[in-house]
Write a structure and sequence with these properties.
Layout (H helix, E strand, L loop, with lengths): L2 H20 L2 H19 L6 H4 L1 H11 L7 H19 L12 H17 L4 H12 L3 H9 L3 H28 L26 H21 L3 H21 L2 H18 L4 H14 L1 H10 L2 H10 L1 H14 L13 H5 L3 E4 L2 E4 L6 H34 L3 H20 L9 H24 L1
Antiparallel strand pairs: 1-2
């Protein structure tokens, strides 16, 4: 055992002894757990990334029982990970230096574009700064996570843990469907029939839950195919089925579209001969499951289009396009329209002598164009293109079956989330944005070590 590890154990022991001697039994027990966890993380710092993989459950628990910690824990943990990376750099400076990847420049360009928009066009600087933070902050997970992970083994650990967590949530969703959990009337159009409930697990929206399931589904399939024994394949196959079933029960059409794209990309990368069976399977679900058939049929009906043009997505999109025409270059200002920051600050916008109260744009790409103009929109679309194309490149250079399966499943899931953002503001949800950039870092960690090996 090295002198550094001995010193670390001694320091942890002193801290533990002091805590147990001055605190009550409950606080002391919590301190014991915290010290043990810290000791494990300092010895294997890549395990800290599992906290982000379990973001949904951790966030829900802290918001329910953690008091004020529930609203700031992710910021505090980001600071902790930065400090942990410095510790890693000092401890293992001969192992890996600062890791770079093809995603660095696109991310810096987008962040730079947001800074330009913030400086040049901020009608209300406080709101704009809040909007900037909401967009950029969660991208910082990428830069920290890629520094902490060490290749294929760590990528599998993080992905497997995430899939297991989502598998548990999927089971909860199935349970909600069985008992017919109550849902707000606004979750289903009054003209729509056949939907008795929409599941959401521990989240506030079936659309958010559906997006989480869309991200996890291809990864579960990849882990099943990469498993070395029958038990592992069976476990991940069952989880994949549970995730798919729970996704169906969310009745989230946007998540279904994202899932279709994710599975389509996965199949194209794996074996194009599976396209026809997948299409036939989708048609079977459409016919055999009334809630799915009714939701999709109604979406294509004249009644839905008329309803949506009055107070739904279509009228919001048309309004957003008109705003972009009036503010084409730098938009109306970050956080000023179309998203959570604007809603929280009750922002209003004057368009053609008409005052419009803000609303959720239900299209993150269009929301980006409204708030940051064509400058921010172009930078964001280039960033999304970079995520996809670098995922594909990682698949091609992966030399092992596990790396290829992981990069394929993760990239497919990321593509599903990007697609879902065309009809929802999914990147407004801290959990989803954090997971998106964490898994982008996981893919690029695989790329880094494969490229380094070559």
């Amino acid at each position: 055992m090295s002198n550094k590890n001995i010193l670390l154990i001694v320091l942890l022991g002193l801290a533990l002894g002091f805590g147990c001697g001055t605190l009550g039994p409950v606080a002391a027990l919590a301190l014991v757990g915290a010290v043990i966890a810290l000791g494990i993380v300092l010895c294997r710092y890549e395990l800290s990334v599992l906290v982000i993989a379990g973001f949904g459950i951790i966030d829900a628990l802290l918001r329910a029982f953690g008091g004020g910690l529930g609203s700031v824990w992710d910021e505090l943990f980001l600071i902790f990970l930065v400090m942990l990376w410095f510790y890693k750099w000092i401890r293992d400076r001969n192992d890996d230096g600062f890791k770079t990847s093809p995603m660095d420049i696109p991310l810096f360009i987008f962040i730079g574009a947001m800074i330009v928009c913030l400086i040049i066009n901020s009608p209300d600087f406080k709101v704009a700064l809040e909007g900037f933070r909401a967009i950029v902050q969660y991208m910082l997970w990428y830069f920290v996570v890629i520094q902490l992970l060490r290749g294929e083994k760590d990528a599998k650990t993080v992905t497997a843990f995430f899939v297991l967590v989502v598998g548990v949530l999927a089971l909860h969703g199935i349970y909600q469907y069985i008992i017919g959990v109550e849902m707000p009337s606004g979750w289903v159009d009054q003209n729509e029939a056949g939907v008795r409930t929409r599941v959401y697990s521990i989240f506030t929206s079936p659309n958010v839950f559906g997006s989480l399931l869309t991200l996890a589904a291809p990864m579960a399939i990849s882990l099943a195919l990469a498993a070395k024994n029958g038990k592992g394949r069976l476990l991940y196959a069952i989880i994949a089925l549970c995730i798919t079933a729970s996704l169906v029960f969310t009745s989230s059409r946007g998540a279904w579209i994202g899932f279709a794209v994710a599975i389509g990309i996965y199949v194209l990368m794996k074996d194009k001969r599976l396209i026809i069976p997948c299409v036939l399977g989708a048609l079977l679900v459409f016919i055999a499951v009334p809630s799915v058939g009714n939701r999709i049929s109604y979406m294509l009906s004249p009644e839905y289009i008329e309803s949506s043009l009055k107070g739904g997505r279509l009228v919001r999109w048309l309004t957003g396009i008109e705003i972009v025409k009036d503010f084409p270059v730098f938009g109306v200002g970050l956080g000023h329209f179309g998203g959570a920051v604007a809603m929280n600050n009750e922002m209003r916008l004057l368009v053609d002598t008409k005052t419009i109260d803000t609303f959720y744009m239900d299209n993150y790409m269009l929301k980006t164009a409204v708030e940051s103009g064509l400058v921010g929109f172009a930078a964001f679309m280039a960033l999304m293109y970079s995520v996809v194309i670098n995922g594909f490149r990682t698949m091609k250079i992966s030399a092992t079956k596990l790396s290829k399966e992981l990069s394929t499943g993760i990239t497919a899931g990321l593509c599903g989330v990007i697609t879902h953002n065309l009809v929802e503001n999914i990147f407004e949800v801290p959990m989803m944005t954090s997971l998106f950039w964490m898994f982008t870092a996981v893919v690029m960690s695989i790329w880094y070590y494969q490229y380094k090996a070559d």
